[in-house]
Design brief:
By secondary structure, this protein is α+β, with helices and mostly antiparallel strands. It is built from 13 helices and 9 strands. The strands form 2 sheets. Strands 1, 2, 3, 4, 5 and 6 form a 6-stranded mixed beta sheet that branches. A 3-stranded antiparallel beta sheet has the order 7-8-9, covered by helices on one side. It is elongated. It starts with a helix and ends in an 11-residue tail after the last helix.
Length: 333
C-alpha cells in the first residue's frame, strides 16, 4: 500500500514533466511522509542525460543554481558532518546533479541538487562528482524539490522556494502547483503562511531555518489579523533583532513565546512631535507635541530669542500641523 501511494503521487510529477496536465487530486503530505525517495523517479525527472559517465571536476568550477532550496551561506560543519565523514572515509558515493553552463568564464557547471555534498567537498578540498542533466528552470525546480523531499531541508527554505516557484512557473495557480509537486492544498497553504511572515519577524530568530510552518501558524493566530497585535509583534521582533548578542534568548521556542506575549501588551507609540526654528533656521524656538488623546502641547524653550512675529508664525504652523479643527457647516447652525 505504501509503495502504491508513492507511485501515485510521483506519477503526477512525471505527467507534469512530460507536459501533460497534472493530476487533478493533490496527494496529502502524510501520504509521502516516511517513504524513501525513488532513485528511478529522480532519473526520469532529471530529463535527458548527456552521458551516463559521471564526471569529477574541481569545485571552483561549479556554482549553485541561484534558485536552489538551501540557504548555502548558513551551512556549517555541524550541518554537513555526516557527509564529510562519509566522503572522507568512502569517497563521494552519490554524485550531485548539475547542468552545463555556457558563456560563463568563471564556472562550467551549475548544481541543481547537492548543496551539502558541494559544501563537504569544498571543506575537504577535493573534486566533486557530478552527473550532467539537460533541463530548463521549471524542470530544475521539480527535480530539486523531488530529490530533496525526504532531506533535512527546513520549512523556511522550502517555503521560500515554493513562493518563488508558484509565481514563476505556475502563474500563481496554487492547485496546479500543489498537484505538480505532489502535495495537498492544505500543505501548500501552511508553507504560504510561513513565506508571508514579515521579514522583521524572521530576522528576530537566530536562524531563519528554525522558523517552521507550525511556528508561523502560532504567530499568525496570535496576530489574529488585528492591526494592534500585529504592530506589537513587529515592534518586539525589531527589538529582539537589535539586541542580538546581548543575552536575549537564542532558542527559537523562546523567541516565539516573546513574540506571542507581545501581542497581549499595549502598543507604545511615539507621540507625534514637531520643532520650529527661527527665520534663519538656526535656533529651535518652539516645540509642539500631540498626545495620544489628541491634545496638542506647545513648549517654548528657555533662552530662545525669537521675535513675537516668529513665535506667532511657529504657533500657527503647529496648529496647522497637529491640531485638527472641526468645521461647522452653515446648515448645522
Amino acid at each position: 500500500m505504501a509503495k502504491q501511494k508513492v507511485k501515485t503521487a510521483l506519477g503526477g510529477l512525471l505527467k507534469d514533466l512530460d507536459k501533460v496536465a497534472p493530476t487533478a487530486t493533490a496527494m496529502a503530505e502524510n501520504d509521502l511522509g516516511q517513504e524513501k525517495r525513488s532513485r528511478d523517479l529522480i532519473g526520469v525527472l532529471g530529463g535527458k542525460t548527456e552521458s551516463e559517465v559521471i564526471r569529477e571536476v574541481e569545485t571552483k568550477r561549479c556554482r549553485l543554481w541561484e534558485r536552489h532550496n538551501r540557504l548555502y551561506d548558513l551551512l556549517t560543519l555541524e550541518d554537513c558532518q555526516d557527509l564529510v565523514d562519509s566522503i572522507r572515509a568512502e569517497g563521494q558515493i552519490e554524485p550531485v546533479v548539475a547542468r552545463k553552463l555556457r558563456d560563463d568564464p568563471e564556472y562550467d557547471f551549475e548544481i541543481i541538487a547537492g548543496a551539502r555534498r558541494l559544501w563537504a567537498c569544498v571543506y575537504l578540498q577535493r573534486p566533486i562528482r557530478l552527473t550532467i542533466k539537460d533541463m530548463d528552470d521549471r524542470r530544475a525546480f521539480l527535480f530539486s524539490d523531488a530529490s530533496n523531499r525526504y532531506s533535512d531541508i527546513s520549512d523556511y527554505e522550502r517555503a521560500i522556494e515554493y513562493r518563488d516557484a508558484l509565481e514563476r512557473y505556475f502563474g500563481g495557480n496554487q492547485s496546479e502547483f500543489a498537484a505538480s509537486v505532489g502535495r495537498s492544498i492544505a500543505t501548500i497553504s501552511r508553507y504560504k503562511a510561513l513565506w508571508e511572515l514579515d521579514s522583521a519577524i524572521i530576522a528576530a530568530y537566530p536562524d531563519p531555518r528554525t522558523v517552521t510552518a507550525k511556528t508561523a501558524a502560532k504567530l499568525r493566530a496570535a496576530m489574529a489579523n488585528d492591526d494592534r497585535k500585529t504592530e506589537a509583534m513587529l515592534a518586539k521582533a525589531k527589538e529582539l533583532n537589535s539586541k542580538k548578542g546581548e543575552g536575549i534568548p537564542t532558542e527559537a521556542s523562546a523567541v516565539t513565546q516573546l513574540l506571542i506575549a507581545a501581542t497581549a501588551q499595549p502598543v507604545k507609540r511615539d507621540l507625534e512631535k514637531r520643532t520650529y526654528k527661527d527665520a534663519a533656521g538656526r535656533q529651535v524656538i518652539m516645540e509642539a507635541q500631540k498626545a495620544t488623546n489628541g491634545a496638542v502641547v506647545i513648549r517654548i524653550p528657555k533662552g530662545q530669542k525669537a521675535s513675537r512675529e516668529e513665535l506667532s508664525k511657529a504657533f500657527n504652523s503647529a496648529l496647522d500641523d497637529l491640531f485638527t479643527v472641526k468645521t461647522v457647516d452653515s446648515k448645522e447652525k
